[in-house]
Amino acid sequence: MNTRTEENYLKAIYHLGENGALNVSTNAIAEVMNTKASSVTDMVKKLSEKAYVNYKKYQGVTLTKEGQKVAISIIRKHRLWEVFLVEKLNFTWDEVHEVAEQLEHIKSDKLIRELDVFLEFPSHDPHGDPIPDQDGNFKDFEKILLSQAQIGKAYKCVGVNDSSSDFLKYLDLNGISLGTKITVVHKETYDNSLKIRLNSSEITVSQNVAKNLFLNQA
């Protein structure tokens, strides 16, 4: 039985290592986990003993196949719970992350299978992130950042790169959500800010916003 802290470490390593494939430094893990590098080293050694990670001093950390399996399972539970909270309990997309962080550690495989069935097998969470199936497979789809969008071409919002509450509230305030139709009207050469058309209105967004909003062709 893995502890909640161990599961959080595996999930962090998975994300930092681009789905667990790359070496991750203990300093990077410490920053994400908000702890000291020495504490990370102790935990990584423990995870290595459980055969969840490969660790060599000064060379970083990678997940083993078993470590990836655990990390993906946690991510699957987290994203299914987010869908449940938004669709069935009327949470907003900026409220669900912290609650799902707690629910993702529930151990019942049957509960998660039945939750998936109950939600009719959603492919993406409320932020547009793909939900792995029970075998750990992700369904990919084409997407680009708003910063890469062509002027005059019609797109729709399919996800966010920043799921922080502040960013999601900013999007809500400006009428942007999953499925919103977006067309770039003008790109400012001075600071790369963008004037965009949202359905029938126009707003200007910063380059920072444009780097955190995913689109695909409408």
Automatic annotation (TrEMBL):
Subunit structure, as described in the record: Homodimer.
Keyword line: Activator, Cytoplasm, DNA-binding, Manganese, Repressor, Transcription, Transcription regulation
Function: In the presence of manganese, represses expression of mntH and mntS. Up-regulates expression of mntP.
Matching InterPro entries: DtxR_MntR_Metal-Reg, Fe-transptr_FeoA-like, Fe_dep_repressor, Fe_dep_repressor_sf, FeoA_core_dom, HTH_DTXR, Iron_dep_repressor, WH-like_DNA-bd_sf
Subcellular location: Cytoplasm
Family: Belongs to the DtxR/MntR family.
Protein name as annotated: Transcriptional regulator MntR
Source taxonomy: Bacteria, Pseudomonadati, Bacteroidota, Flavobacteriia, Flavobacteriales
Residues covered by the HTH dtxR-type domain: 1-64
